[in-house]
Amino acid sequence: MPVKRKGPLQLVKREVDEITTQVDSLLNDVQNQVGPTEESFKRCQDLQISTEKTLRTLEKLTKADELAPIGNYDQRKQEEEGRLQSILERLNTLSLKLSPPGPSAAGDLSIKDSEDDDDDYNEDSNEDEDDEEDVDKAARGPQESIPHVYTVLSDFKGEQEGDLSVHKGEVLSIIRKTADGWWLAQDTKGNRGVVPRNYLKIGSVADNEYADEEEEDEDENEEEQSEEEEAQDGKELSEEQDKRSDAFNWSTVRKALTEIDATDVLSAMGAIPSGFRPSTLNKLLVEEGVTHKASHYVQPELSQSQLSFRDLFLEPDTGRVRARQVRSCVCFTLWSCRMIPTPGVGVQVLSRHVRMCAFDGTQVLSNIHTVRATYSPKSPKTWSFSPRMTGILPTLLDGDCFLRCDSASPNLGILFELGVTFIRNSTGERGDLSCGWAFLKLTDDTGNVLPNRTYELAVNGGTPYEGDVSVEASVPRGSSGGVFQQMLHARRRPKLIIKLKSGSSRTRAQLSLLPDTLLHCVNCIHLLVLHRQLLADTLLMERPSMHNADLKCSPILSTFPVLLDQLDLLDALRSSWLDAEASMSRAQKILHQRSSGPESSTPSWILSNTTSTPQARQEVRSSLLTPSTHILLLISQS
């Protein structure tokens, strides 16, 4: 009878059993001090290489490689991966204990570092390639890694046993590099421990300064060369790429991906999920200032002739703002977020929020609007919006929003970036993390507008410019296994639930009076319409001619855009507006009902320009505007 062949997973399981036996034997010999330490250290290195090789082989296996069907294949594979990870941790701890003393390693460093420094002076442009080679050497195992001198980029305080606390500018000797990013290092005092890779830069401080001076001399010589040589110069090419990318927000994205900040440190420590990134939209708000704020988009735009406005007109018969239709105008509600991972220990979350903007896949096309989420301590992975409360709902918590955008891009949609504001317990450092992003395209493949219904959007990790990044490594993106396992994986994936809805006829009419591009809260539409009408009255109706360019003094018009960026002051204005409407007299309410009938798109203070007597119009206008104007004047004076 022929011998039954074993499948790949069974062969790997046998290798894991053999490695486990060898590790137990090594630990027993070390504990009983059997044999020299150098021999034990060599055995430990060999076992590390063998374990990493087996782990890579196991990760490449799939269910289709098996000779016969295996029940619970994914579960068995995960169990073997867990065993290998546990073995690696035991070997790393043992390797730190058995590592050779520092002076001999430092002597080897002096010779090899001089050669490496010479290479750095001559080939400074190849630093990225050197870093990639370092990672490759680390992946091949500790035995093949070569020691180097590295400079510390930022302070690091060890939080666990075996960590090496270092300070910025300190020079370290790297004894061993590993693929997990934690390298064994030794400082100038002889202290040893592991340090995260992203805290280090190759070379000493003196070497870097000398290389920088040599780079500056080379740049000056290159500027004196011909235009053909300048076109081939790598530095000038990178500057041209930066100029082209500024229009598409690439400079900010590149900084978010390359700068070493608290997010990189937390990711290296395992304190946050692998898919978390520095907030891209928050960087746009901080670095590009008012460009992506609502106050920028409510200002009227001048036409090409600079003598009139491109998006602000008055109806000659009624004196009201002329309605303008745009290509995309939607109302939507943030419903909830589910299965959003939480940062680990060492990080305190101050707030959870969703930042939104119009996006076409390459650039931000509108202002960035933020809505804060609420959650229950019993289910921290579930976010909700628009909580119930007495009085008016603050704009920051209101999930009912609208978007107006006149872009003709076929990929136009709404970008949602889920984020948290955090503080590190150890250093007190604050920052903004992106917990993932989702995108809702406003048209289908045929170009038709999406129907009004509820949508479950998958939350992706990384940034909007990255692809196929999971928010959490433990949640696979692919669907392997049976139908039941696919259902379980689908329930574990992070989701954002959005509801598209059609506003009332009054809301749609009011939206047509707003700027061509704006994303904001639905409850602030009446204030935005008021600002739009006052703009038209001041800039169009009150000018003797279109050629008149005299400055206009209006504290309300100059202060209202500031309120859109200060949501607490905007809520105070909304509250005073409601109080003014509640305190209207009976005659004013009758005039309000007559002037703003069921088909009216604007409140009585706008329609009063053409209705009733001048005294009645002024009475209604002043009764509604006085409290709001008082708030605006106080803000403008402060």
Describe the 3D structure:
The protein has 638 residues and is α+β, with helices and mostly antiparallel strands. Among the domains are: 8-98, Up-down Bundle (Methane Monooxygenase Hydroxylase, Chain G, domain 1); 149-202, SH3 type barrels, CATH 2.30.30; 264-471 and 489-505, C2 domain (Immunoglobulin-like), CATH 2.60.40. The protein is built from 20 helices and 16 strands. The strands form 2 sheets. Strands 6, 7, 8, 9, 10, 11, 12, 13, 14, 15 and 16 form an 11-stranded antiparallel β-sheet that branches. A hairpin with a 2-residue loop joins strand 9 and strand 10. Helix 16 packs across helix 20 and helix 17 (567-582) packs antiparallel against helix 20.
CATH topology of one domain: Immunoglobulin-like
Q: Largest sheet at a glance? A: 11 strands, antiparallel
Q: What's the tally of helices?
A: 20
Using the 3D structure, state the CATH architecture of one domain.
Answer: Sandwich
Fourth-level CATH superfamily of one domain:
C2 domain
Radius of gyration (Å): 32 Å
Identify low-pLDDT runs: 102-147, 226-248, 256-260, 594-628, 633-638
| Quaternary organisation | single chain
CATH class descriptor name of one domain: Mainly Beta
- Mean pLDDT comes to 75
Tell me the strand percentage band.
15-25%
Structural category is alpha+beta
Q: Outline, from the CA principal axes?
A: elongated
Per DSSP E runs of 2 or more residues, the count of β-strands stands at: 16
Q: Summarize the amount of helix as a percent range.
A: 40-55%
Q: Termini distance? A: 95 Å
